[in-house]
Design a protein that fits this description.
The complex is a heterodimer of chains A (about 230) and B (about 240).
Chain A (H helix, E strand, L loop, with lengths): L1 H15 L3 H34 L5 H11 L4 H12 L14 H37 L4 H11 L1 H16 L3 H7 L9 H11 L2 H26 L8
Helix pairs in contact in A: 1-10, 2-5, 2-6, 2-7, 3-5, 4-5, 4-8, 5-6, 5-7, 5-8, 7-10, 9-10
Chain B lengths: L7 E10 L2 E11 L4 E5 L6 H9 L6 E5 L4 H6 L1 E4 L10 H11 L4 H14 L15 H13 L5 E5 L7 H16 L3 E6 L2 H7 L2 E6 L2 E7 H6 L4 H7 L6
Parallel strand pairs in B: 3-7, 3-8, 5-6, 6-7
Antiparallel strand pairs in B: 1-2, 1-4, 8-9
Helix pairs in contact in B: 3-4, 3-5, 5-6
The chains are: A mainly alpha (about 230), B alpha/beta (about 240).
C-alpha cells in the first residue's frame, strides 16, 4: 500500500515538474507506437476490406489464420524479428537491431492481425449491407474497397485504437529487439520492467500511471477529434 | 432513348440458390417504351426476375439478351431496392456518389445532386445523415440516386411496399416524371392500384414463371388465364 501511495505521489511530481527523462521516454513510446499504428493500419485495413469484398478459394482460411494470429505471442515475434535483424540474419546488413525501427517492425507484426480481424468484422457487415447497391452501381473493386473504408471509418477507428492499446502496452518483443537502451530505445513499458527488476516499485508504478494516462489521453483525443458520438451518427 | 437496349429477350432464364429454383424458366420479350409492371403474389419470383435482368442474380440456365452488349446494357441501368440501401453519408453525398464513381468532377456532381435533392423535396436536408431519414425520404433518395446518372432503364423492386399514401404518391410522381423524360421503368409490385396507375405493359408471374404478359389495358380488362382472373379478383393464388 505504501508503494502504491509513493507511486502516485512520485507520478504526480514527475508530471508536474515535467521530468526530462520521463518526457523523453514518453515521447519515444508515443513515436514508436503511433508509427507502428500508422504502418499497421495502412496494411491491415485495406487487407480487411479486400477480404470482405473479394471471393477467392482460400478466403475463409485466410480469415481464420488472421484471427488465429491475433493471439501471436509477442516474445516469439520479438525473437523472430531479432533473428531476422541480427548480424547473421537476412536483414542484418541494415543494422536495425536495437533501434526504434526494429521496435516498430515488431509492433507492426503484432498488431496487423489484430487490426485486420476487428476491421474485417465491421467491413464484412457493411459489405453485406452495401453489396447489392454497389454491384448495381457498377463500382470497381478499388472503389468498393475505398467506399467501405470511408463509410466504416468510425468502426475502423475502434480497430485502430485496439491496435494502439496492444502496441503501447507491449513489452516482450520490444525488449528483445530494442534492448532497452537508455536514451535510444527505452520506452515506458521497458522502463517499468527495468525499475521493477531493480526493486524501485514506486518509480515503476509512477511510470505505469503515466503510461495508463497516456493511453487514455490518446484514446479520448482520437474519439474527440473524430466526433464518434456526435448526434445523428451511428 | 431506350431503343438502344430493347428489345430485351429472355429465353429459359432460371436462377437458383442452394439448389432451389427462385424463378424460371422464364421466356419473355420486352420492347417499345413505357412502364412495365411485374405483378404476382409473394414468392412468385418478381424480385428474382428483376435481379436476373439487372445481372445481380446469377442466371444458372437460359439467357438474357439485350439489343446491345451486356456491358453497355449494365452501364445504362439502375436498380432501386425494396428496402432502400443508404450509404452512411449525408443526403448530398449519397447523390454525389454514383456520379463520382462514373468520373464526374466533384463540383459538377455536387451541383447536379443539389438539383435532384431539390426536385425530390430533400433540398432542405442536404447535410442530414441519410440513414436517419424516414422510410419515404429514404426511398425518394434511393430513386433520385438511381435516376441521377440518367439511366435508360430503371428497375424498381416494390418501391412503395412500406410507404404510406402520401409518400407513395410522391414516389409515383417522381417515377411518372422519369418515364416522361424517356427512362424505361420495370417495376414489381403487388399493389394492383399502383399497377393500374403506372403500367403500360404487365408481366404476371406465378410460381417463378410468366403466366401472362401484354398491354396493361388488355390485361386488366380481359385477362387470358384463370390465375390472372383470380389474382385480379383478389383471390388467393398460389
Amino acid at each position: 500500500m505504501t508503494d502504491l501511495w509513493q507511486g502516485l505521489v512520485q507520478a504526480f511530481w514527475l508530471v508536474v515538474t515535467f521530468d526530462a527523462e520521463l518526457a523523453e521516454i514518453s515521447l519515444r513510446s508515443l513515436r514508436v507506437t503511433l508509427t507502428a499504428l500508422v504502418v499497421a493500419s495502412a496494411i491491415a485495413m485495406p487487407l480487411a476490406a479486400f477480404l470482405s469484398v473479394q471471393r477467392f478459394r482460400f478466403r475463409r482460411h485466410v480469415v481464420a489464420l488472421l484471427n488465429a494470429l491475433m493471439g501471436l505471442p509477442p516474445v516469439v515475434v520479438g525473437l523472430v524479428v531479432y533473428l531476422m535483424l541480427s548480424r547473421s540474419g537476412p536483414f542484418g546488413v541494415l543494422g536495425l537491431l536495437f533501434t526504434p525501427t526494429a521496435m516498430i517492425t515488431a509492433q507492426v507484426i503484432i498488431i496487423v492481425p489484430l487490426i485486420a480481424s476487428i476491421a474485417h468484422q465491421s467491413l464484412r457487415d457493411l459489405w453485406q449491407e452495401y453489396h447489392d447497391l454497389l454491384i448495381s452501381i457498377n463500382v470497381t473493386r478499388r472503389q468498393k474497397i475505398a467506399t467501405l473504408l470511408w463509410d466504416a471509418r468510425r468502426a475502423l477507428l475502434t480497430a485502430g485504437l485496439a491496435g494502439f492499446g496492444r502496441a503501447i502496452g507491449e513489452v516482450g518483443a520490444i525488449m528483445i529487439v530494442g534492448g532497452n537502451i537508455d536514451n535510444a530505445t527505452r520506452v515506458l513499458t521497458t522502463a517499468i520492467a527495468l525499475e521493477t527488476g531493480k526493486g524501485d516499485f514506486a518509480l515503476a508504478l509512477a511510470l505505469g500511471i503515466v503510461l495508463v494516462a497516456l493511453a487514455v489521453a490518446v484514446n479520448v483525443a482520437i474519439h474527440w477529434l473524430s466526433r464518434t458520438e456526435r448526434e445523428g451518427r451511428w | 432513348m431506350v431503343s438502344a437496349l430493347f428489345p430485351l429477350t429472355v429465353k429459359g432464364a432460371t436462377t437458383t440458390r442452394r439448389g432451389k429454383v427462385l424463378a424460371g424458366p422464364i421466356d419473355l420479350t420486352l420492347d417499345g417504351g413505357g412502364t412495365c409492371v411485374v405483378i404476382g403474389p409473394n414468392g412468385a419470383g418478381k424480385t428474382s426476375l428483376l435481379r436476373m435482368l439487372h445481372g445481380t442474380a446469377r442466371i444458372t440456365r437460359g439467357q438474357v439478351t439485350w439489343a446491345c452488349d451486356t456491358e453497355t446494357a449494365r452501364h445504362h441501368q439502375a436498380f432501386v431496392f425494396q428496402h432502400p440501401v443508404m450509404l452512411r453519408r449525408s443526403v448530398i453525398e449519397n447523390l454525389v456518389y454514383p456520379l463520382r464513381v462514373r468520373g464526374m468532377p466533384r463540383t459538377a456532381a455536387r451541383q447536379r445532386a443539389v438539383d435532384w435533392a431539390t426536385r425530390i423535396g430533400l433540398g432542405h436536408m442536404l447535410e442530414r445523415h441519410a440513414p436517419v431519414l424516414s422510410g419515404g425520404e429514404q426511398q425518394k433518395l434511393a430513386i433520385a440516386r438511381a435516376l441521377i446518372v440518367e439511366p435508360r432503364l430503371l428497375f424498381l423492386d416494390e418501391p412503395c411496399a412500406s410507404l404510406d399514401g402520401r409518400a407513395m404518391r410522391e414516389v409515383e410522381e417522381i417515377l411518372v416524371q422519369a418515364a416522361a423524360s424517356g427512362t424505361r421503368l420495370i417495376l414489381s409490385t403487388h399493389d394492383m392500384g399502383q399497377a393500374r396507375r403506372l403500367a403500360d405493359q404487365v408481366v404476371f408471374l406465378l410460381r417463378g414463371k410468366v403466366q401472362e404478359t401484354g398491354l396493361a389495358k388488355n390485361f386488366f380488362d380481359q385477362p387470358q388465364t384463370s390465375q390472372a382472373v383470380a389474382f385480379l379478383n383478389g383471390d388467393i393464388v398460389e
